[in-house]
Design a protein that fits this description.
The protein is built from twelve helices and 16 strands. The relative contact order is 0.17. The chain has two domains: 212 residues, FAD/NAD(P)-binding domain; 102 residues, 2-Layer Sandwich (D-Amino Acid Oxidase, Chain A, domain 2), CATH 3.30.9.30. The chain has an eight-stranded mixed β-sheet with strand order 3-5-4-11-12-13-10-14, with helices on both faces. Strands 6-2-1-9-16-15 form a six-stranded mixed β-sheet. Strands 7-8 form a two-stranded antiparallel ribbon. Helix 1 links the parallel strand 1 and strand 2. The two termini are 13 Å apart. With 388 residues, the protein is α/β, with parallel strands linked by helices. The structure holds flavin-adenine dinucleotide. The site of flavin-adenine dinucleotide (FAD) has 32 residues, from helix 1, strand 2, strand 3 and helix 9. Pfam families: FAD_binding_3 (PF01494). It comes from Streptomyces camelliae. Keywords: Monooxygenase, Oxidoreductase.
């Protein structure tokens, strides 16, 4: 069977552009099709990029991203520091990482089409085409890559019985605050297990700051989350942190309602049984969404996109898809499972909270750089050939 020469990439978020750039590096031409009519500039909140993710992004030309976030200081609801966990992360606005990748893709001649919402595919003996919701059809390519996120259409086309995202029991919120009114925290992010919700914040030398909150809540769809005004969410968050001695209330007060980022229900996909079928394959959140608690969503998406391109460089697509899944599945599912355990601590009830607070110092003793090396020290050797 011949080498793969052309690819359709569905989704122009993070995994999509990384896949297109890595495919170009592998000598495969890729075009990106994104459902949104415009770019995602200014949309989304903060995310972290782990050293493993930085290394993967470096392979497609992203040299610098974000600001250092080298430690997490864990506090209890009284503001007492329980422990400090060293971890060499970068803090980035999702919109900045997105824009960097988008510009790189355009610079390298990747065609990015907006307003192309995938609805179906047409697969034949010679190739595959994307059918969009407006009825238009793409040119034929050798393969189609689903980088279309948590609610992936490609995942459903590969397997109509594919699992739906799993709710963690937490709603996510956050904001950038221009006048944080707090001393800079250096390269540290402070995180606290409050009585009723989880809070994180970091302040920078220029007086700006960022905070995020995870609020235990019965499941709400995105539509329901949006039906509640930002003013009301800020009020409810204020209630949740009212009894905690952390700077949550002050930072909430300093957040103009229009600047509140509602990340909605925090969800993951612990196990997607089929990552590929025929000429279709998944990459990023569509295959292995982890809840934001891992700090690894964008990093794993970048790693997978690069590994997929590397496999397609060396093998015909059926074997490449198998080799790619073999290289990735155990690793990503381990990260997802670890984040899910963290979430259950954040959503703990009164009894669970007592256990959690007692066990936190112990947990911290295990979260050493050596024990986390399997996550952070992972590096992809682009030059190494892949065998079937
Ligand atoms: C607008 C936005 C804001 C985000 N903000 C944050 C944040 O603040 N913090 C955080 O940790 N994570 C955020 N995420 C999620 C984060 O980007 C991902 O978890 C991670 O980077 C993996 O990226 P991905 O490319 O696999 O998925 P995503 O980044 O979700 O990208 C998927 C892309 O596919 C597009 N798409 C979906 N369905 C179709 C379709 N049928 N046809 C064509 N295109 C389709 C989507 O519009 C999106 O652009 C955000 C995602 C989006 C889309």
């Amino acid at each position: 069977m011949n080498r793969t020469r052309t690819a359709i990439v569905i989704g122009g978020g993070i995994a999509g552009p990384v896949a297109a750039l890595a495919l170009r590096r592998a000598g495969i031409e890729a075009a990106v099709h994104e459902s949104h009519a415009t770019t995602a500039d200014g949309i989304g909140g903060a995310l972290s990029v782990a050293p493993n993710g930085r290394a993967a992004l470096g392979l497609v030309g992203v040299d610098r991203i974000g600001a250092p976030m080298n430690a997490i200081v864990l506090q209890n609801h009284k503001g007492r520091v329980i422990t400090e966990i060293r971890q060499p992360m970068q803090f980035s606005w999702r919109a900045d990482l997105y824009r960097r990748l988008y510009d790189l893709a355009l610079d390298q001649g990747v065609a990015v089409h907006h307003g192309h919402e995938l609805a179906d595919v047409r697969e034949s003996g010679t190739g595959i085409r994307a059918v969009f919701a407006d009825g238009t059809v793409s040119e034929e390519a050798d393969i189609l890559i689903g980088a279309d996120g948590l609610r992936s259409t490609v995942r459903r086309l590969i397997d109509p019985r594919a699992p739906q995202p799993r709710y963690s029991g937490l709603l996510g919120f956050g904001a950038r605050v221009d006048g944080a009114g707090r001393p800079p925290t250096g390269d540290r992010m402070y995180m606290s297990f409050g009585r009723r919700a989880f809070f994180g914040h970091q302040s920078f030398d220029d007086g700006t700051g960022v905070w995020f909150a995870n609020l235990p809540h019965p499941y709400l769809t995105w539509t329901h989350v949006r039906q509640t005004t930002n003013e009301e969410w800020l009020r409810r968050l204020g209630e949740a942190f009212a009894d905690d001695r952390v700077p949550a209330l002050d930072l909430l007060r300093r957040t103009p309602p229009q600047d509140l980022v509602t990340a909605g229900p925090m969800e993951d996909l612990p196990h997607v049984p089929h990552w590929h079928r025929g000429r279709m394959v998944l990459v990023g959140d569509s295959a292995h969404a982890t809840s934001p608690s891992s700090g690894q969503g964008a990093s794993l998406a970048a790693e997978s996109a690069v590994e997929l391109a590397r496999a397609l460089r060396d093998l015909p697509y059926p074997q490449a898809f198998t080799a790619y899944e073999r290289a990735r599945r155990a690793r990503v599912e381990r990260v997802i499972a670890q984040a899910a355990r963290t979430n259950s601590g954040k959503a703990a009830g009164p009894v669970g909270r007592t256990f959690r607070d007692a066990l936190l110092p112990l947990f911290a003793r295990f979260a050493t750089p050596e024990r986390m090396a399997w996550q952070y020290d992972h590096r992809i050797n682009w030059e190494a050939p892949i065998a079937a």
